Amino acid sequence: MKKSSSNTCTICSSYKNSPLYSGEGVEFVMCDNCTLISLYPRPTEEEYEKFYKDEYQKHRHDINTYEQAVRIREQKGLKGKKSYIEELGEFLREGISVFDIGCGWGTFLKLLKDSKGFNVEGIEPGAMQARVARDYYGLKVARETLSDYVERNSGNRFDLVSMIHVLEHFVDPGKVLDDAKSILKSDGVLFVAVPNTPRPNEPLDRFFHFEHCYYFTPLTLNKLLKKHGLKIISLTSTKDELRVSAVFKEDSRREIDTSNLSKLYSEREVRSSLNKQVRKYRILRFLKSVARTILPWRLFQVLRGWIISILKRLSVIDI
Question: Phi and psi for 235 in degrees, rounded to 5?
Answer without folding.
Answer: -140, 130
